[in-house]
Specification:
The complex is a heterodimer of chains A (107) and B (235). Chain A is mainly alpha-helical and 107 residues long. Chain A is 78% helix and 4% strand. A two-stranded antiparallel sheet of chain A has the order 1-2. Chain A is extended and about 60 Å long. Chain A starts with a helix and ends with a helix. The mean pLDDT of chain A is 90. With 235 residues, chain B is mainly α. Helices cover 78% and strands 0% of the residues of chain B. Chain B contains eleven helices and no strands. The chains are: A mainly alpha (107), B mainly alpha (235). Chains A and B meet through helix 1, helix 2, strand 2, helix 3 and helix 4 of A and helix 1, helix 2, helix 3, helix 4 and helix 5 of B.
């Protein structure tokens, strides 16, 4: 993406984010939001992270590529196990990176 | 600033401090991976001030690295920030009496970490006597996180420029998503949302500009809502 496009993206997302933050405090002066919005917001993070993770691990140059000798999905599996057992974000990153380096050496 | 206001501000700074431990590594990681995704350093730093939302900034960087177009990237990160509308609604009762410039500054500082600290202060108890100075507390908490976010971004940018790309430190971004996912997936609807979105991302990978990611997330949201309503009906 070109630099002017990136600048537009940054200010666009910044404006939308500020709007969300300011909307109820400054514009509508109300604390009433429909229940479905609360429910929807609970699912946004898991859905976004899952889509991005799947895409980072299994999509190469716009096409699905599932290869047994690709190091990243295996490193991600190690990271997921550590995340599940420890619940610690930094430990997960550490284990995943260490697994990636070891696997890149052997695969 | 009066003395009691200053005391309130500094208490906010102090109470926010433990949360920096969680935020600073993400700021550093954001700086490193922004460079790896080809974002100019000055713009990556500017984004930390303009957007000031950790998860959304990491998502933007991850999507740029994957070659996503402007519209899908803006939609995904915008959607991820929708939860701030809930925080805004939750704080509206407490901040409604403040002048506009105060409400604008505090809205700008309304991140997950500042909200978590400030809302506790507001819910605890109204001040026994004297004027309500809790907005100074919120300002202290928000300012502390803001400063740490800018500094950790800068550190990541400097550090990121010094390490070779073969280290693949940007792989830490999907690893972070995996860690957060594992923490978020305690409930059935969240699991359904993640599963549908993950599968959707692969099935729709052929769409241009990575628009498949946006549709995959919408698919995940539908699956999450549907599962939640089904569970509701069973109960």
């Amino acid at each position: 993406m070109s630099t002017p496009a990136l600048i537009g993206l940054v200010f666009g997302v910044g404006a939308v984010t500020f709007f969300f933050r300011y909307a109820m405090i400054g514009l509508f002066a109300s604390n009433r939001l429909p229940g479905w919005l609360h429910a929807l917001c609970r699912h946004i993070a898991p859905a976004s992270f899952a889509a991005l993770t799947a895409s980072a691990l299994f999509i190469d140059a716009g096409a699905v590529s599932i290869a047994l000798d690709a190091p990243k999905p295996w490193a991600a599996l190690v990271a997921a196990l550590v995340a599940w057992r420890s619940g610690n974000v930094l430990a997960t990153i550490g284990a995943g990176m260490a697994a990636l380096y070891v696997l890149k050496f052997f695969l | 600033m009066s003395r009691p206001a200053l005391r309130e501000f500094l208490t906010g700074c102090r109470d926010e401090a433990p949360l920096l431990l969680g935020a600073v590594p993400f700021g550093i990681l954001y700086g490193i991976s922004a460079l790896a995704a080809g974002v100019p350093a000055w713009l990556a730093q500017l984004a930390s001030a303009v957007v000031f939302a950790g998860a959304a900034q990491l998502v933007i960087v991850q999507m740029l690295a994957a070659g996503a177009g402007m519209v899908p990237t803006a939609l995904t990160s915008g959607l991820l920030n929708l939860r701030h509308l809930l925080y805004s609604a939750s704080m509206a009762t407490y901040l409604g009496h403040l002048p506009r410039h105060w409400r604008m500054v505090l809205a700008y500082l309304l991140t997950d970490e500042a909200y978590a600290i400030a809302v506790l202060r507001y819910q605890a108890r109204p001040p026994a006597e004297g004027p309500d100075l809790r907005h100074w507390y919120f300002l202290g908490a928000g300012f502390t996180l803001w400063s740490a976010w800018q500094l950790s971004t800068a550190f990541g940018l400097v550090f990121g420029a010094a390490i070779p790309p073969e280290w693949e430190l940007d792989f830490a971004v999907p690893l972070t998503f995996i860690a957060l996912l594992t923490l978020l997936l305690r409930e059935r609807p969240g699991q359904a949302a993640a599963l549908a979105a993950g599968a959707g991302a692969l099935l729709l990978a052929g769409l241009p500009f990575k628009l498949g990611l946006v549709f995959a997330i919408v698919l995940g949201l539908a699956a999450g809502m549907w599962t939640a309503s089904r569970l509701e009906r069973v109960r």
